[in-house]
Amino acid sequence: MPINWDISSALYPLLFLASAISLVFGALSWTRTTTIFLPLPTWIPVLTTLFPPLTLIAIASTRVLSRSASNAPHRWTQLLNHAHTIILSIIATVALTYLYPEDILTCHLNNQWQYFFQHKDARAIRAIQDRYQCCGLRSIHDRAWPFKDHDHGDNACEQQLGYRRSCFEPWRGVQRQTSWMVVAAVVCVLIVKIGAWQIPGRRISWMNTRVLENGGEQQRRSRPELEEGEHNTEGDGDARRALLPRSRSGNENVWDAE
Asked: For the region Disordered, what residue ranges are annotated (predicted)?
């Protein structure tokens, strides 16, 4: 027995896989940003985590709204499409700024560490040092915890914790990985958005509402032409009836124009 295979059979697993990857990457980036105190703004991984389920909800809502005959739902779906694309672009752009250029990435890391040091945030600096077994940022004596005071010198971290490397390289590597996770999650969401539109017979893209509206206008334009054609047909029928023979008395047939 032949197996019915269409593009939907391949697209549905792909959309599910892309949604799952996007959700996992978003959750990982969120966890790393909050636990390792990365300079990446927290709202970036938060939105990245929430966007996969929100995208699926938006696709389902668009499918329902596209069945409506009114134009109002179509306008809402267009606005939803534009807002969705703009927010994804902003998330990807901000994440890329924490990757390139190298000077800007280094500046972000230095400013974040300096903020913790100025505010004596021992919890943040200690969490980074314990996670990567390092001391300080640029060197093992650079703004390390325990902070320098009358009881501790610059080498307090090295002496008490025994770490022999600085935190800059491992911390920067995690920041790069996290930013790439955000970018990959955004790409996966775009794949879901485009792939849903490609499903045959269920084109639910937010961009196809304009096509539906144009199709309705074409139908409205063609209707007067059909009505005019019907009137012309009636007129032709009257003309043909006018040429029909009319019987009179005496079995004599004459042509009488009505």
From this structure: 214-258
The answer to whether position 108 is within a domain reads yes
| Contact status, residue 66 vs residue 73, Cβ threshold 8 Å | yes
Residue among 206, 138, 207, 216 at smallest CA distance from 170: 138
pTM of the model: 0.69
Q: How many CB atoms lie within 10 A of CB 55?
A: 22
pLDDT at residue 47, rounded to an integer: 93
Query: At residue 65, what are phi and psi to the nearest 5 degrees?
Result: -70, -30
Q: CB neighbours of 64 closer than 8 A, spacing ≥ 6?
A: none
Total domain count for the chain? 1
Residue 227, C-beta contacts closer than 8 angstroms, at least 6 positions apart: none
Residue 92 lies in a domain: yes
45: containing domain: 9-211
pLDDT, one tens digit per residue, over 12-39 is 788 888 999 999 999 999 999 999 999 9
- What Cα–Cα distance (Å) separates residue 35 from each residue in 64, 99, 169? 40, 20, 17
Helix (H, G, I), strand (E, B) or coil at 37: coil
Radius of gyration of the chain (CA): 35
The pLDDT tens digits for 56-84 are: 887 777 666 666 545 555 677 677 778 88
